[in-house]
Design brief:
alpha/beta, Rossmann fold, 2 domains, 16 helices, 13 strands, 43% helix
């Protein structure tokens, strides 16, 4: 089967990691799969032999957005795929329209967030609700029980097409030496180091982790990612005298994420808005003890099949709560080791193979 995956932007982020796994898994099952990005935001996918870009840089103003949308639909008409799997709001909308115009027999959308009521995201939510109700999606994939519950008051015709496929989460392909990993990313060799990764945006709440540096003088923090909060975070650290302990690793490509994770003593995920939390599940499976915001979805994802938590949860995820949890791990290495062992066990729960099997069953119509 010829399959095109549609993403909005090319960057090293969670939705893109999912489509990487889905693409690789379906190719291993004999399908022809490419991923098209509406625009190239960073260099993360420049060397990917299965990636295409509609625009080589982010669109500017309405005219650029129209070019990206029209270009995507032209790409799909040329490709004539049997199936389209779309991700993120714009990818869902324009990938579905383009896929229908191109005659694709299967359209599978992925819900990347809870329904919103205000602003641009509120408008996109309304469009998604209309498209799902009209049956433009063959299937509408959610990645957790929490995410599925967010659509509980939607029309029955929309909900009938919802399918739950939990994200697969890759395990490290090999062992990485901690000292070598720290040297590779320019991180301090002897420090107690907490890591975090993801887009540097307000929703990711990295400011709370930076604030924890003020309360724990022996703590260092390293952030992997880029985004609009980079400069505010640096300014905050400078103003509070902790800039020598806040390290920016920049955008870490998917192929090196486990090397980066090997550098840490713990992983912190203070995000305030998630439907799954792929990055934190990845860190847990890599063997890092985790501190996470106590969001209901993160309590769901970061637990064993028996319901045992594999992380310390920070209520409210403010600087004081994160510092309290990290301080506890620093003082209790036995607890840190136990959480690391429990986290590795999530590999069986979030199998990339099982995830890809779920998508293949949807494509087969079952």
């Amino acid at each position: 089967m010829k399959i095109i995956q549609v993403q909005t932007q090319a960057e090293a982020a969670g939705a893109q990691r999912v489509s990487d796994m889905v693409g690789a898994g379906l190719r291993a099952r004999g399908h022809e799969v490419r991923t098209v990005f509406m625009y190239r935001k960073t260099t993360a996918y420049d060397g990917d032999p299965f990636a295409d870009f509609v625009l080589s840089e982010p669109p500017r103003r309405l005219a650029g957005q129209i070019r990206a949308s029209a270009g995507l639909m032209a790409y799909l008409r040329r490709a004539r795929p049997d199936a389209v799997i779309s991700y993120q709001h714009y990818g869902n909308i324009f990938g579905t329209i383009g896929g229908r115009l191109a005659g694709a027999r299967h359209i599978i959308a992925n819900q990347s967030g809870a329904p919103q009521k205000h602003g641009v995201m509120g408008l996109l939510t309304k469009v998604d609700k209309l498209m799902g109700t009209l049956g433009l999606y063959q299937a509408n994939v959610v990645n957790s029980a929490w995410a599925e519950a967010q659509f509980g008051d939607y029309p029955a015709i929309y909900r009938r097409r919802i399918r739950r496929i939990d994200h697969g989460v890759e395990a490290p392909p090999r062992h990485y030496d901690k000292a070598a990993a720290r040297a590779a990313f320019g991180l301090p060799s002897g420090a107690w180091l907490a890591l975090s990764s993801g887009r540097l945006t307000r929703d990711k709440n990295h400011i709370a982790l930076a604030g924890a540096l003020m309360k724990l003088p022996d703590l260092h923090v390293a952030l992997a990612g880029i985004g609009p909060e980079r400069e505010p975070l640096a300014a905050f650290a400078e103003a509070h005298g902790v800039s020598d302990r806040l390290h920016f690793a920049g955008e870490v490509p998917p192929a090196r994420i486990f090397e980066f994770l090997a550098a840490g003593d713990a992983y912190v995920f203070p995000s305030v808005n998630e439907t799954f939390g792929l990055a934190v599940a990845e860190a847990a499976i890599a063997g890092l003890p985790v501190v996470a915001n106590a969001l209901p979805v993160l309590r769901e994802v970061l637990s064993t099949d028996r319901g045992e938590p594999v992380a310390l949860f920070a209520e409210g995820a403010d600087a004081a709560e994160i510092a309290r949890a990290l301080g506890y791990l620093m003082q209790k290495p036995d607890i840190a080791r136990r959480l690391a062992d429990l986290g590795r066990g999530l590999a069986g729960r979030y199998s990339p193979s099982a995830m890809c099997g779920g998508y293949e069953r949807l494509l087969a119509g079952s």
